[in-house]
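testing teh design pipeline on a random one, pls ignore if ur not involved
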């Protein structure tokens, strides 16, 4: 069968029944392709997008399930860790001075300083600084003494039973005497905010 392009000349849509077989076949293929394309666009593409969303949701739900399963499987361990964390927190709270122990803290700092061989120039409370869950109680300290005594002093402060942190160290030579140094620092202790509100 030889292809003859002239058979496609003068084709009219009003007279499709009289078209040659090749033209009818081409029209049928074109219509079939258009119907499949429009059917895909109208029906299947939305279904495909919904399927992809379902796959993504399935993966999210699987991950959520794995996480929740892990928590459920280790619930006793998590509860034990929670109790341990609460005990640790309670112990840390006990390390913070309460309101009636705060004046004694100055006595402890004075004792630590004098037993380290330091002379106090200044030791005074500064205004309280209220934070979200605790109150910061700064103390300005100025002492005079030899360098190694500063190390003993700082070490003994760290060994106090209450939490005291040291900040803003400044060391300078006192009266042109290298053996006598001046140390300025700020010590901070903390009080739990709920206790202060009670």
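output:
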């Amino acid at each position: 069968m030889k292809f003859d392009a002239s058979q496609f000349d003068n084709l009219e849509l009003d007279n499709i029944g009289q078209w040659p077989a090749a033209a009818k076949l081409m029209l049928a293929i074109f219509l079939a392709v258009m119907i499949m394309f429009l059917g895909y666009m109208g029906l299947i593409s939305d279904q495909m997008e919904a399927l992809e969303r379902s796959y993504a949701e399935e993966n999210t739900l699987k991950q959520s399930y794995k996480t929740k399963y892990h928590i459920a499987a280790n619930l006793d361990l998590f509860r034990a860790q929670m109790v341990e964390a609460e005990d640790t927190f309670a112990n840390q709270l006990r390390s913070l001075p309460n309101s009636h122990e705060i004046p004694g803290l100055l006595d402890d700092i004075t004792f630590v300083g004098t037993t380290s061989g330091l002379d106090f120039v200044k030791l005074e409370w500064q205004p309280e600084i209220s934070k979200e869950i605790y109150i910061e109680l700064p103390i300005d300290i100025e002492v005079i003494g030899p360098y190694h005594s500063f190390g003993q002093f700082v070490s003994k402060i760290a060994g106090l039973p209450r939490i005291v942190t040291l900040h803003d160290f400044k060391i300078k030579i006192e009266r042109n005497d290298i053996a006598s140094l001046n140390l300025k620092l700020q010590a901070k202790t903390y009080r739990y905010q709920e206790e202060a509100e009670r």
